[in-house]
# Entry
Amino acid sequence: MPYFIENLTELNVDEIINIGKNLIVRSATLEEQNKIKSLVSRFGYTPGQEVFFFRYHETKVIDRLDSGGVKMKSRKPEDFRYFVLDETKSTGKYIQSYAKAFLLTEKEYFIPFGFHKMTNPLGSTSIKYSFESELSSHSYYYDKNQIDYDSKTPIDLPKDLTKDDVFQIEKNLQLLDDFDKIKEDFVYINKSLEDFFKLTEISNYSSFKIVSYIACFESLLVNNDFDKLKSIRIQLETKLDLLNNQLEKPIIIADYMKGPDTLTLGKVVGFAYNYRNFIAHGDFVDFEKKLQIFQKVSKNEILLFLRSVLKKVIIYSLLNPQLISDLKKC
# Structure
């Protein structure tokens, strides 16, 4: 079964990229392209306007590529952006294993669905969504089509699948396979991992997205023992700063936002935790007013920051599950 990769922008149509021993990334066939178009056209638009869906989506995609300075130099227009992940031999591997490994990379390649031609006389196509339901794909396309790409260069473009990206994907596949064998022993890490992927169902335009990110951090790091409960914010701040010192590539705040030299990873997440409290306790949602510390930083930029940090912490947790479990108990 081939799996559609939404984000590739600069691969040559004749190029085949090997991932491990059994996976390849290749250009979609004409038949696959037509099936992808028919599915993509369904996401994020008003019912009753189906005849315009794909044309509108295609225009939006071209606009964001052009305004982001990404040129389709290696492809003909008719081959526009349609690449698939495929197996050289069928393994019956669950589609989410591939989709999760791609999503955990730094660039976050999104795999919305897989499809294959049935063996029945009608030759129909079977569709399998990558993240439990098509809601994840709806949210993804909705968010992409709401961004004003003329205002600034999108930070997620271009995505050109380098050797380092392939290495990350292979590493993530192995980490996920290894952790699956011991996940019953590390239930909070497993919960955070599964919740992270469920977050694709929530649009970035929902105020509850930040609440959900913080919940994942809490599952991984916060000790909720009522006999010795410390401030959740203090736990998050101290433990994230401790973890940041252990990462192979520590997170540098200045790469994401401007601020005083004293602004640490823990403090930024701590401020976001306060914002989460306003939402969770029924207060009015005003990002700029509630979080004045983030001057000239948008809510979407904070979301991207939290997501980047959470991915790094999750990957570290998969590598060091016992250490994270011990840290949570502190």
